[in-house]
Amino acid sequence: MKKMRLGVGITGASGAIYGIRLVEELLRAGHLVHLMVTEAGWQVFHDELDLAPDVTERETFLQEYFAPQNQGELHYWTLRNFNCPMASGSYQSDGMIIVPCSMGTLSGIAHGASGNLMERCADVMIKEGRKLVLVPRETPLNALHLENMLKLSQLGVRILPAMPGFYQRPQTLEDVVNFVVGKALDSLQVPNQMFRRWGDHLE
Predict the structure, then answer these.
(1) What is the CATH number of the domain that holds 59?
(2) Residue 171 domain-assigned?
(3) DSSP letter assigned to residue 201
(4) Residues with Cβ < 8 Å from 196, sequence gap 6 or more?
């Protein structure tokens, strides 16, 4: 399997477990991950997952947290560190995903703000015609949210809402999470067996 270079962003939208689970799977498969987390994302880590490393220890924490799964390569970048290779179109990446993606980050990308590293990297994906997948987790959606998603979709961005399917009859919360993560990996063209696919029972 080809080793892919992928950017992963995690924002302050609810559903931090989706981002964590996705990074685990990418590293387990031996890929290179450039990880970015917003300050609100770190707050959600604390509120939803009881993960609260000190600001100065975040990089070390992440390396240790993902160590059991890590057959790949993990790089953590703060949102003010534009030395990240993903911030340049000359870096040959295979795409980027923001999971979960807040409406604030989605709006910044839709309007080309490049106000932080995550938005800048997403802008690079768009201008270079590379895969960009956004996994919004918000409800209900207002007209501004929908307009921004439409604008990005028309630019070739994949909008993949965190909407689990139930035809695979999930038995646990992990099954529900894995379905969304599996669909996200599919959008990045990363082979995975995260969920039972429709029609598998016929083979």
Answers:
(1) 3.40.50.1950
(2) yes
(3) G
(4) 168
Q: What is the phi/psi pair of residue 61, to 5°?
A: -60, -45
Number of domains present in the structure of the chain: 1
Within a domain: residue 125? yes
In a domain, 200, yes or no: no
Instruction: Calculate the CA 96 to chain-centre distance.
Output: 7
| Cα 128 from Cα 52, distance rounded (Å) | 35
> Residue 164: what are its φ and ψ, rounded to 5°?
-70, 145
Give the range of the structural domain holding residue 165, as residue numbers without chain letter.
Answer: 5-192
Residue 53: pLDDT above 60? yes
H helix and E strand count, the chain: 7, 6
Instruction: Report pTM.
Output: 0.95
Using one digit for the tens of pLDDT, what is the confidence trace for 136-156?
A: 999 999 999 999 999 999 999
CB 2 within 8 A of CB 93: no
Residue 69 lies in a domain: yes
Please, where are the H alpha helices in the chain? 16-28, 39-49, 58-66, 103-110, 117-127, 143-154, 173-187
